[in-house]
Amino acid sequence: MKCKIFRDKLQEYIDRSLSSDMNKAMNNHLMECADCKKLYDEELEIEKLFKSALETDNINFNSSRQQVIKSIDKNLYGKSVIKKLKFTVIRNRAQVIAAGLILAVAATGTYAVFNIKSSNRYATNSKSEYKVSNKGSKLQSRYKTMQKETITTTDTKQKNTYTKVSLDNSIYDDQSQYAKLNLTDNAYVAMFRKGTVKKDTSDGTRWEKSPNGVLQFSLRGKGENGHEEGEGYLLFKNRENKMWKIYIADNKKQYSPLSVEWFDNSNVLATVGLGYGTVVVGGDLYMINVNDGKAVNVYNLYTSTNGKKQIARISKEDNTLKLKLREYTDDALDNHKEESIKLYFNESGADTTIKAKPQDAWQKSLDKLAEYVDDDNFNNISELFDTGADESGKQKILNDMSKAKKVTINKYIDVTPSVNLENLKDTYPYIRQYIVDMTADMESDGEIIKNGRNYLCVTLVSKDSSSIPLIYNIGGLSHN
């Protein structure tokens, strides 16, 4: 999108009157253009102050600045007067903001002055230093021609048919275009919960449909554009208009979803950070299941840097997530720089909301875990591990699996290009790392695997293209 088109459509974007496709294009342009992002922030500030200046405790002013200008009697004042009014508002931003603040304070009274949230201690004047990196190239096809091959496992005389894949490693070998995740089990995770809703009349963002159109979500509690201060929550509805919400329980940190995007038909991606303060524009990257509220922290930049690094905006395009990062460069949080990065997420699996894809040898090795648990075949589970696997981690998984009555793998998310596996490449030419969404029916909770939904980080390795991929490491990921 050209900057001129963005600026022409900016007021409609703020008013939420654009089509869904145009709204998404505007979102993407905001992530890529620092100048237009700055203009958008200024316009949004004017819009908020324009409204606050005309609100009192008993009267809510719902029209936008653009609607007010449009409502002026053109026959009485003429087009030139309206143009001058528009131009005056834009040209005299500082004066408009100052006047809006004075009017807002006068209207709300002294009570509001002494009712400021404690988290506003983070508010400060911020000088922006923008550094935007655009490294874009379309992903090449991952696989060459698939061939069928019969491979005999070492622990049994049974023959198991795998789909052998001749891998085109271009996307895996050249990983410089992708940022690196730090997948860990000790990141902070906000406690998301599912709640019932009969009716919700609060302000919120426009409804966003899931890829298959069955569900919709709206971010509530943070204004029409999702940028106001407050502890927001996600409101969902289905085709029958049944509604429910996903919210943060026991929210002592005053966290909130900030930027939200559909990942697939049953999960959303959300940046989660502090709901108050002008310095906080982003947070960590979460994947949240919309049906049960289970959430996993997949990119813990915000909590691991005490707020100095934040994921400000997210956008999904095919298998790539585009993230706009903000990094504060001083301890006072006065100055910051921004950059765009990409993460690789390629999803497949048995989840019924996902279009079925052919399984490859990598996924079949993961499926063997579930199959052997169901058959109580724990000797075979042990044989799924590579000889170089960490022995203590292997024993933890074997102990946990012995407590499992049934294991179901819902989906696999290949994140290989977005993790650092350089230390293994000399030994294992073929490596994959997956986030595995798995449901376990446990007799009792294990050390890594708990009863219910689990998120695991699994590394698979193979020394040549004709060998069965084996497990090198399994670890839990931080989830609620």
Automatic annotation (TrEMBL):
The chain crosses the membrane at residues 94-114. InterPro entries: DUF4652, Znf_put. Residues 3-36 form the Putative zinc-finger domain. Keywords: Membrane, Transmembrane, Transmembrane helix. The keyword tRNA processing does not apply. The keyword Transmembrane helix applies. It comes from the Bacteria. This is Putative zinc-finger domain-containing protein. It comes from Clostridium oryzae.
